[in-house]
Amino acid sequence: QVQLVESGGGLVQAGGSLRLACAASGRTFSRYAMGWFRQAPGKEREFVAACSWSGESTYYADSVKGRFTISRDNAKNTVYLQMNSLKPEDTAAYYCAKKNLYGSYTFSSEYDYWGQGTQVTVSS
Asked: Around 81, how many Cα atoms within 13 Å sit in the side-chain half-sphere?
């Protein structure tokens, strides 16, 4: 079993920054890839960013590339999402998730454990 707990969401003005954190339970955190997804009201959950088990390989949705950075600290069992130059369209609930061993990084079906989410609201 893996438990994931997100934190760091909040209300920020357009152009501002937030840093989300996702703390994972368990001793095998460093063995698996992690991802961030988001879901706005009335919309489907969408891929935001992912990183490999080591953090050396990273993947981003086109909509956040150049503004968001995913990273991880395996010693702290934590994955981060640094969000800069935030836009109102970034407003959503953000979820971290543990990835399966195989499959695409961008498909939510390839992730088997999810956090409860943290709300990010960007005002214009």
From this structure: 33
